[in-house]
Amino acid sequence: MNKKCFIALSLSSILLLGASCSKQLTALSSDNFNVNPSPLEVEGLMIPATVTGQIPAKYFQKNAELTVTPYLVYGDQETAGTPLVLQGEKVRGNAQVVPYETGATVALPVGYKYLPEMIKSNLWLAFDVKQGNKTYVLPRVKVADGVVATATLADAATVKPAIAPDMFQRIITEKVEADIMFLINQTNVRANQINTAAMKEFNGAVKEANEDARREIKEINISSYASPEGGLKLNTRIAEGRESSTKKYLDQALKENEVSDFGALTSDFTAEDWEGFQRLVAESDIQDKDLILSVLSMYKDPEEREREIRNLSSVFDQLAQQILPQLRYSRLSATIDVIGKSDKEIMEAYANDPKTLTVEELLYAATLTDDNSKKAEIYNKTASIYPNDFRAYNNLGVCQYVDGDFDAAKRNFNKAASLNANSKETQMNQGLIALLNNDFDTANEKFGNAAGLEELNDALAVYYINKGDLNAAKVSLGKSNSNNAALTQILAKDYNAAKNTLVSIEKPDATTYYLMAVLGARTNNEQMVTSNLRQAVKLDKSLATRAMNDLEFAKFNLSNVL
């Protein structure tokens, strides 16, 4: 080859190479991309997805730099996502390199904070190219249509806050006791023993209960004892004699007080009160008491016990003076039921003079009505009469929360917490307020403090749905039958469980029927879709607009429903 031809060939090669290097990137199409999930779907408070692109072989010029920016377009607005930068083999940079000869698979994570208007939207990719000293733009490509926003039906506002319970008991059982003491080896009831303060109180309580229509004597019992000294036969006779004399005395006392209406009069005796002996020794400061207790544990036979203890001559005198006399007695006990006010009486008292009611009666009164405003009135009155009881403020806040007055509810929950920082009910309710405001850290802290409350299950389900953790939401449900519980099950694709939950809701509302329609759509049951949407829209007309734009119902004709 001559020199002239070589020069010409070389020049031709350079021109061809230059033409190859300056060739612009061509437009891409939707066929080059797929999106997962498609359509987009709300998880937590975000719209997350991954766009996967196939860059074909011999497409990406070696000197090109391509910036791919995802845009979610809704109405006349758009929100940009985080861009992905790709570069050719000859570009100096830190972006992902796309080989010219082979092309590459690229992944672009996208995420947008969900807004209600995004339910009707499209995902577009924009392409900005820098090639040498030139910059240009490729046509945008639409890669996804719409957003499934079913997860946004999770609503902290619908969670039932926790009521701090009253301790009202219709019947309170009281027990009054008195002891009659005896001298050693004696069985007669002495006059000084029936005139003690304890016996006077006992007889007075029994007499008062007999005369009070709200008190009922359920049982009177006599238990008589002998101290564990001397032979078992003797002690048996003594204990039995004390039982007999005590019963004789009590029969006479009941007769004198005209007490005849009671459940039962029972009596028994214990020949040797070793149990009482052990207890009294353990509580005493007697020298060598540990040795005495050791003897009791070593010997179970009463005679052996007594013999070994008597052998402890250094302490037996102390036992005879301090312990044994306390074991020569008869104990009288009366079990009395105190019958509280009826529901009618409580409500009448509230109407006439609430101050005559105890705090427990007032708190209980609020449970006797289903009218939320009446409940709030009673709790407000309770707070004014008993301002130091946290339950009145907590429960008033519950009523306000149910009414949607979240600011007032927050104030009362905080007041309750200032009076009782350890109340699980109040901690949960403060967590609900935090959840309403998307303050997940505070909500998590408060819910942790309320662990164990049954009411917490529903709140936790909403918390975890909003955090995008369906597994945790499902675990948290417990036995909750609520819209939020059913929603969790739908999102987790546990459709049988969701249906069982929805049909078990005591007071179904618009959201209940809307969720049933979603369930129908996911199980391809058109009749379930249409019938439940009709009922949902009947209860809440705003759901008609949502349903028209809801991709859950995209394949169904709703013209006759909405």
Characterise the protein shown here.
This protein has 562 residues and is of the alpha+beta class. The chain has 3 domains: 24-148, Immunoglobulin-like (Sandwich); 171-339, OmpA-like domain (60s Ribosomal Protein L30, Chain: A), CATH 3.30.1330; 353-553, Tetratricopeptide repeat domain (Serine Threonine Protein Phosphatase 5, Tetratricopeptide repeat, Alpha Horseshoe). The chain is built from 22 helices and 15 strands. Strands 4, 5, 6, 7, 9 and 10 form a 6-stranded mixed beta sheet that branches. The chain has a 4-stranded mixed beta sheet with strand order 12-15-13-14. Strands 1-3-8 form a 3-stranded antiparallel beta sheet, with no helix packed on it. Helix 16 runs antiparallel to helix 17 (470-476).
Quick tags:
15 strands; Serine Threonine Protein Phosphatase 5, Tetratricopeptide repeat; alpha+beta; Immunoglobulin-like; 20% strand; single chain; four-stranded mixed β-sheet; 60s Ribosomal Protein L30, Chain: A; six-stranded mixed β-sheet
SSE blueprint and pairings:
Blueprint: H1 3-21, E1 33-36, E2 40-41, E3 46-55, E4 64-74, E5 77-80, E6 84-87, E7 96-97, E8 104-113, E9 122-131, E10 134-145, E11 147-148, E12 171-181, H2 191-194, H3 197-211, E13 215-225, H4 232-256, E14 265-270, H5 274-283, H6 289-298, H7 302-310, H8 313-323, E15 329-339, H9 343-352, H10 359-366, H11 372-385, H12 390-402, H13 406-419, H14 424-436, H15 440-449, H16 456-467, H17 470-476, H18 483-491, H19 495-504, H20 510-522, H21 526-539, H22 543-549
Parallel strand pairs: 2-11, 6-7, 13-14
Antiparallel strand pairs: 1-3, 3-8, 4-5, 4-6, 4-9, 9-10, 12-15, 13-15
